[in-house]
Each structure stands twice: as structure tokens, then as C-alpha cells.
Design goal:
The complex is a heterodimer of chains A (about 80) and B (about 425).
Chain A: H1 27-48, H2 56-76, H3 78-82
Helix pairs in contact in A: 1-2
Chain B: H1 2-14, H2 32-40, H3 44-58, H4 60-71, H5 81-86, E1 88-89, H6 92-114, H7 116-120, H8 126-144, H9 149-161, E2 163-164, H10 167-176, H11 213-219, H12 221-234, H13 238-253, H14 255-259, H15 263-284, H16 293-312, E3 318-324, H17 329-332, E4 335-346, E5 357-373, E6 378-387, E7 389-392, E8 395-398, E9 402-408, E10 420-436
Parallel strand pairs in B: 3-4, 4-5, 5-10, 6-10, 7-10
Antiparallel strand pairs in B: 1-2, 6-9, 7-8
Helix pairs in contact in B: 2-3, 3-4, 3-8, 4-6, 6-8, 6-9, 9-12, 11-12, 13-15, 15-16
The chains are: A mainly alpha (about 80), B alpha/beta (about 425).
């Protein structure tokens, strides 16, 4: 029996006598979190040092590309997440 | 048929839409805050503080309170003034949605009133900031309590339609109306002689039974929408709420640190901290279920990007309607920068001696610029606009990449040694007009 505080970790009863199901690792969510942490670090350093890390002309396309990639990964892993 | 209608009506009455009513117990004014407190489970004092802030800032709280009093009935089984007026019944989510929409409208008007320029430049007035803060807190608390804001926004037009009034409400309205315009249907189903009851011509299909309350709810669009909202609320994971609250707490904890920095960087620091916490929540989302954090992170990222763009602008950038009228040559030797809006640079009052040379630089990001030159000065014009027009006297150079490099001789005849103005204009998007005063 799992002792995790969140209910989703608990084995969910299934119809019939099939084996209990566990929640699978969500790579999309994990990658999104990593991306946002990176973005936060970049902007936090820029804000604290009063000196922007890079020009918006560079960082804006980078952010949009990053968000797009993360979104694609989330879409691709959606079926795995909802299974 | 009549029995079925009666059964359906009983079913609807048994499962009525939730009501947001005023509560007279413990009220200070009309019982709006006590009613909101009882429905949401939040202390009414919180609502009183919110209304108080909105009243004290620019008085919009009064409008909001009156609207709430009009839409909230005096009791759960009574009809509100608005319900009597529109002859529709508004359930609690509908009233809350209407109040939220009103608050959003107030915020939009406030921001527009203060000028988007002030917001972009970080010079938000205290009133606008207070209203924005109240709205932000409401949205965060609502989201933290499992309200799907996107779904609520989509359901708003449907909610605004309300429900048909119950017969009991109609009876109440009849009682409260001085002159009754209602007429009871003849009892016993009797119609005047020679008339046909059209309802009896379309009997229910064979096998059709009276709708159960559940079936009735799923058939109605409101019911299906409510069911979806309820399903969404039921599945709201705890980690999402914890992450959002932690993000707010972390941003608040960094507030003293951010205070030591100028305005755009302040916002950047607070947003970054909140984004970092959201990122941590999503990392944990690899193992535990979360929902909506990716959206929050995307919004925060966009806000950070906007802040960084604003921070890139020179410190003396002006927004909105700007007018410069330099009166001394020492003050004119600087760069006039306009972020967005309509600028006017009047150089006619510049005291220029014969042969004197001054350099004037103007930079426009978005908007129009009107430069007025003194008639007795020679002007060495160097103007470039990435996307827009340059108009010099009666001549127009159109973009993209409009460029004008020319010398404008003084209009005053007989000037041997005129003063010279080296005017350099750089624009990105907009029109530039150069003319003599």
C-alpha cells in the first residue's frame, strides 16, 4: 500500500478482478516544469542584477519556441497521461 | 400530459438551482457581504474589505454593491429585483459571473482611464493598482477553490440567460405588482367553445415516460454545463491549489527584496519567483496529478516577456500624448524618446543665435510625431521610419523603410548665417511630420 499523501498514487480499483492501476509518470508536465524553472532563473538573475540577460529580440523568439516545443511534448504525451 | 408536466415541475422544484441570497443576520448595509460569505464559506469581513477598497479608490465599489443587491434576492425562495425585471431566474453562479464581469469592466475602464501608457511605463496609479489587486486576488482565490475560470468565462453568455421563473416566483411577482397583467388559465382544462387545445394534438411518443430530474438536467443546456463544471471541480487536484498558494506566498516573501530595484525589475523579480514555484509544481506533476499549472506558467512567462520589453526602454521614455517645447539650447541637446502614443516637438521657442548649431534626437517606437521647426533656422534632417510615412512640408515619403535626408533652408530671407538644427528622427511604426512653425 502506497503511503503517498495524494490520492492519485493510491491503486485505483478496477472493474472486475483486473490488477490495480498506478498513475504513470507524466514526462510532459515534468519537462514543462523544467522549462518554466529555467525561464524563471533567467529572468530572476536579470531582475536582481538590474541588467537584462539578453535583448528581448533574442529572448522573445527563444521563449516562443520553447513554449511551442513544450506544448508539442504535452500534446504527444496527453494520451499517456489520460490513459 | 398534464400529469407529466406536473411531475416535471415538481422535479425541478425538488432540485432547484443554487441561490445566492442576501442574509439579514449580521448585515451592515444590505446583507450582500453576509450573503456572499455564507455562499462561499469565506468570512464576510473579507468581502467588506474588498468593497471598501473599491469604494475608497475610485468609488466603483458602490456600483458593484448596488448591482449585487439588485441581483441577490432577499431570501433563497424570493425573486430579486433583477429577476423581477428580466422575468428570469439567476442562480448563484450566474450572479457571481455577472458581478465578476462587472468588476472586469471596472478594471478595464480604470486601466483605460489611467492610460495604458501608465501601465506600460510602470506608473500605475494607486487606484488602478488597488482595483487590479482586488481582481487578481479574487481570481486567484476562485482558482484555488477549484473554479475553472476558462469554463466559467465560456459559460457566461449561457448563465446570463438564466432560468425560466418558477410558478411560485410568478405568484410572488404578481403579488408585488400593483396592477396584475397575468391571467390564470381556466381550471379543468376547459377552453371556450369552438377552440382547440393544440397541446393535446401532439401526444407523447409511445413508450415515452416522464423525465426524471437527472434526465431533465442533462437535457437542459444549463444542466449539462453545470454537470461539466461540477465534474471539473470534483477533479481539481490539491497539488494545483498548494502550488498556486505557494507561488503567491513566495512572491510576497520576495517583496522586500524587490523593493530595492526599479519598477520593471521589481515586477520581473516577483513574477520570476512565482514562475519558479509553478515550475516546481509542474515538476512534481510528473508523479502527482496537477491541472492548469501549465496555463498559469505560460501566462507568467508572457507577463515576464512584456516586463522585459518595458525594462529595455530608456528610463525617460514617455507614453501617450506627449508634448516637448524646449526653451533653452542646453535642454534640447538630449534624446526625446516616445514609447507609444502621439508626440509633438515644438522647437519654435528655442533661442538660437546666428550660426549656432544644436543637435536634436527623437526616437519613436509606435505612434505619430509632429515636429515644428523655427522659420529662421537651417535644418539638417535625417529621418528614418521602419514602417510609416515621413511628411516634410508638403512632400510625403511613404514606407516601409521611409527615409529622408535633406537640408531645409530657412524661410526668412536675407539670413546670412542662420542657426543650424541637426534633427535626427528614428521611428519604428508610425508617421512623422516635419513642418515650419
Amino acid at each position: 500500500m502506497c503511503r503517498c499523501p495524494v490520492a492519485e498514487r493510491r491503486p485505483e480499483p478496477r472493474a472486475g478482478n483486473g490488477p490495480a492501476r498506478r498513475r504513470r509518470f507524466d514526462f510532459g508536465s515534468w519537462l514543462t516544469g523544467l522549462f518554466f524553472l529555467l525561464v524563471a532563473a533567467v529572468f530572476l538573475v536579470g531582475g536582481l542584477s538590474d541588467d537584462p540577460i539578453d535583448r528581448p529580440q533574442v529572448i522573445a523568439p527563444a521563449l516562443v519556441v520553447g513554449l511551442g516545443l513544450v506544448g508539442i511534448v504535452r500534446v504527444l504525451t496527453r494520451s499517456r497521461r489520460h490513459r | 400530459m398534464g400529469g407529466m408536466v406536473e411531475e416535471e415541475s415538481t422535479a425541478v422544484r425538488r432540485d432547484p438551482p443554487s441561490r445566492l441570497a442576501r442574509v439579514p443576520e449580521g448585515r451592515v448595509l444590505g446583507g450582500v457581504c453576509t450573503g456572499l460569505g455564507r455562499y462561499t464559506g469565506i468570512d464576510p469581513i473579507v468581502f467588506r474589505v474588498g468593497f471598501g477598497i473599491l469604494v475608497l479608490t475610485q468609488g466603483q465599489g458602490i456600483l458593484l454593491y448596488i448591482a449585487a443587491a439588485l441581483f441577490m434576492p432577499a431570501g433563497p425562495d424570493r425573486a430579486s429585483v433583477a429577476e423581477q425585471l428580466f422575468r428570469r431566474r439567476f442562480d448563484a453562479p450566474a450572479v457571481l459571473s455577472i458581478l465578476a464581469a462587472l468588476l472586469c469592466g471596472i478594471v478595464a475602464l480604470n486601466v483605460l482611464g489611467n492610460g495604458l501608457a501608465g501601465l506600460l511605463g510602470g506608473n500605475v496609479s494607486t487606484g488602478a493598482f488597488a482595483v487590479l489587486t482586488v481582481l487578481g486576488l479574487i481570481l486567484l482565490v476562485a482558482h484555488g477553490r477549484g473554479v475553472d475560470l476558462t469554463l466559467e468565462a465560456r459559460a457566461f453568455p449561457e448563465r446570463l440567460q438564466g432560468y425560466p421563473l418558477d410558478p411560485s416566483d410568478q405568484a410572488e411577482m404578481r403579488a408585488s405588482t400593483p396592477v396584475s397583467l397575468y391571467k390564470e388559465a381556466p381550471s379543468g382544462g376547459g377552453l371556450p367553445e369552438g377552440m382547440i387545445d393544440l397541446a393535446t394534438l401532439s401526444p407523447p411518443a409511445a413508450g415515452a415516460t416522464a423525465a426524471t430530474p437527472e434526465e431533465d438536467r442533462t437535457r437542459r443546456p444549463h444542466g449539462s454545463r453545470d454537470a461539466r463544471i461540477a465534474k471539473k471541480r470534483q477533479g481539481s487536484p490539491a497539488l494545483t491549489s498548494i502550488t498556486l498558494l505557494a507561488a503567491m506566498a513566495a512572491a510576497a516573501a520576495f517583496w522586500p527584496t524587490a523593493q530595492a530595484h526599479p519598477a520593471p525589475e521589481q515586477t520581473m523579480i516577483l513574477l520570476s519567483v512565482a514562475l519558479a514555484v509553478v515550475g516546481c509544481g509542474l515538476l512534481a506533476g510528473g508523479w502527482f496529478r496537477v491541472r492548469g499549472l501549465a496555463t498559469v506558467g505560460t501566462v507568467l512567462t508572457c507577463a515576464l516577456l512584456t516586463t522585459s520589453v518595458v525594462a529595455e526602454a530608456p528610463p525617460d521614455t514617455r507614453y501617450g500624448e506627449v508634448e516637448w517645447r524646449p526653451t533653452d539650447t542646453a535642454g534640447v541637446q538630449r534624446e526625446y524618446t516616445m514609447g507609444a502614443g502621439a508626440g509633438r516637438l515644438d522647437l519654435t521657442r528655442l533661442p538660437l543665435g546666428p550660426g549656432q548649431r544644436v543637435a536634436v534626437n527623437v526616437r519613436v517606437t509606435v505612434g505619430t510625431l509632429d515636429v515644428t521647426l523655427p522659420p529662421g533656422a537651417r535644418v539638417e534632417l535625417d529621418a528614418r521610419v521602419a514602417l510609416g510615412d515621413i511628411q516634410v512640408a508638403a512632400r510625403t515619403i511613404s514606407g516601409p523603410g521611409a527615409r529622408s535626408r535633406e537640408v531645409l533652408e530657412p524661410e526668412t530671407p536675407g539670413t546670412n548665417n542662420p542657426p543650424v538644427i541637426a534633427l535626427r528622427i528614428r521611428g519604428r511604426l508610425g508617421d512623422v511630420q516635419v513642418s515650419r512653425g
